[in-house]
Amino acid sequence: MADNSKKLYMEMQMDELKAALAEEEDDDLDPLEKMMKEQAASKKKINKNSEKDIELAKMYEDAAEYEIELEAFEKELEIVNANQLKDIASVLTQELPDEERDYAQELKNILVATWTHMVETAKTHPAEQLELIKETEFCNIIEILTTAFPDYDGDFEKDVRTILVKRWETLISIKKEHIEEEMEEIYIAGLKPSFVKRIYKQVHGIS
Questions:
Q1: Of the candidates 72, 124, 61, which has an alpha carbon nearest to the alpha carbon of residue 103?
Q2: What pLDDT digit, counting tens, does each position of 138-161 carry?
Q3: DSSP per residue over 88-153, as a string?
Q4: Both ends of the chain: CA-CA distance in Å?
Q5: Where are the domains of the chain?
Q6: Which DSSP symbol is given to 189?
Q7: pTM (2 decimals)?
Q8: Calpha distance 193→20 (Å, rounded)
Q9: What sign does the dihedral 69-74-77-78 (CA atoms) show?
Q10: pLDDT tens, residue by residue, 80-109
């Protein structure tokens, strides 16, 4: 992407230089010739800039996708923090409807993966807890665990929430890193990310 961007940036600089030289030549033309030349140049410039805008917009496509994903993860984390554990899946489904997402299953998968690590690798929790989690719907997990293990040293609700929050914070951190990498690529190409983003939004009709 950097090579194409540098080439595009150089072309833009050359166009500016040509325009400056053309203005000097226009001083020798009579008013009618100058007007006709300006109209022809204007039409050509519109078409040419349109093609360049499209090329510039392509530079921001990955960053734009990461920004959308980041916004979604931040919204999901907000819901995780603001609701009781038993209600999180239903609120996610209500606030962020997506026919392809099964939030209850996703939450359970996160919990199972983390508890598996604690049982099999860290060896800090009994296997019975993991088996119970696997057999239970996410909305009932805290109640079932608390009833089955009344002598548990920790706090099941606090532990589960910490697992979920950590998961979303990790996803958010990764997306931010991806965005920073894309911005760096644009800087390396000799362009300002804010400028490229503006062109991207302009090309795609985003206000």
A1: 72
A2: 999 999 999 999 999 999 999 999
A3: HHHHHHHHS--TT--HHHHHHHHHHHHHHIIIIIS--S-HHHHHHHHHS-GGGHHHHHHHH-TT-S
A4: 26
A5: 2-59, 64-179
A6: T
A7: 0.75
A8: 26
A9: negative
A10: 999 999 999 999 999 998 768 899 999 999
Q: Round to whole Å and give the CA distance between 43 and 22.
A: 15
| Measured CA angle at 43 (ends 41, 49), to 5 deg | 95
CA distances to 49, 199, 201 from 75, rounded to whole Å, are 37, 27, 22
State both tokens at 187.
Answer: 């800087």
User: What is the C-alpha to C-alpha distance for residues 199 and 191, in angstroms, rounded to an integer?
Assistant: 12
Q: Which two tokens stand for residue 39?
A: 């109209």
Written as one string, the DSSP assignment of 16-47 is HHHHHHHHHHHTTS-HHHHHHHHHHHHHHHHH
Q: Rounded to whole angstroms, how far apart are CA atoms 64 and 26?
A: 42
Measured between alpha carbons, how far is 76 from 91 in angstroms, rounded to an integer? 10
Q: How far is CA 139 from CA 109, 125, 151, 164, 170, in A?
A: 13, 21, 22, 14, 23
Cβ(156)–Cβ(75) below 8 Å: no
Residue 204 DSSP symbol: T
Between CA 161 and CA 111 the distance in angstroms is: 10
